[in-house]
Amino acid sequence: MFPERSLMKRFLGRHVAGAMVFVAFCVQFLVVTCSMGFPAFQDFGEWIYQARVVAGILAGEEPHVGTLITYPVPYFLPQALLSLCELIFGAVGGSTVFLFIHAAAAAWVSDLLVVRRALPPVMTACVLAICVLGGSQYWNGYVGSYWGMVIIVGYLAVSDRNATRWPVVMAFALATFFTHGIIFGCWGLVAGVRALTFRRIRDLIVGVVPAMALVLWYFLKSNEAKGRETGYESITHFVEYRGYTLAKSGGYQNIIASSVGDHQIAPWLFYGGAILNFLFAVLLVVLVVLSLVSWSTLWRTSRWQLLALVSLGAIAAIFPPYFLGIVNPGERVVPTLIVVLILMWPDMVGTRVERAEGIVRKVLCLLLTIGLCATVVSASLAPRKVAQGGGRPSEVSKEILLTSAFGHRLDQFREKVDAARAGDLNQPLAWTTSILVEGK
């Protein structure tokens, strides 16, 4: 009687995961843009400016701040896409298009993963949107990390038979290399255990040769790849740092503007969100433990996923706080660990911990959803934070580390965005881990 309604119902039934992921990103984008006047996702402001410089170079302008590099770098794909968008639509318009392209890509790979891996759509979409494809890395403006996770989720949606063939390995190796170095390493580990499980080592070796050649080229040419590493001061420092890293993957994000965060303007929101995040971290560890308890069953049904889970967990734990110019690289490993854990959900059916695992999974998704709602509230309070802060730059001192926990400074690079809007291409670069090198 109403064929169009039936068609829409069938469409939503098939794409509920993708629709949820897309809506989650749109809500976050809209609340931030309406509150701040531009897509103010911490480091994203600097990426907007650098992309505007690249767009200027492509348009024939001569910015004095930098020139294009002549060797491969891991951030190439997201910055090239952002630069192209800004070349066509301008600084703010192009960055908006860029974020919506990411939201659409994230929705697409989420649908692929759910359908091809027979995963529960609602819970999978919740975890993917809030702490795998989005979450802390999204609010930090780590464009390479969250685009890299889109590629990894897409790779995990490919069947084991096809994913271990050398052309597919080569394509994903190059794609992940050109997004982020740590993401490339995570993909390499997953691809390695997958190839080992299905005895496709030759395909793996052939497939990764071009990407490894680019890695060698990058290390030989780039000073950023030779950065120092720092270790942990004590066992207590290690436990605290790793626990906080896991908690940062939760749903709550403390939105800071003009040095004012939730702790100053809404303490109930800050402490409630922090509790949600630490509960999430505990439940995430519980899910991993339950998977390991069921290792005898999973060894038959999810062997490579189990190997990848253990390996990623070990790497995330031993990474130092600072490595090769990257702050807290272990934080970039956690999303891959989580999505590998998701892949084992269907195979937990029939295990002795099935009931407990199902309950923990539902509570974890509930915590993530509440945390995301708290983040939206925190972002909507940004105008009040700016007014209370008197427009001061967002500088977080060591004395107020507590108030900056789970924090993301929306106006950190506001001046760079204003410069990009005005066409001022002579501002100094905040970092050079991109396709630009300082100097003319």
Automatic annotation (TrEMBL):
Keywords: Membrane, Transmembrane, Transmembrane helix. The chain crosses the membrane at residues 12-38, 87-109, 121-139, 168-192, 204-220, 268-294, 306-327, 333-351, 363-382. This is Uncharacterized protein. It comes from Cutibacterium avidum ATCC 25577.
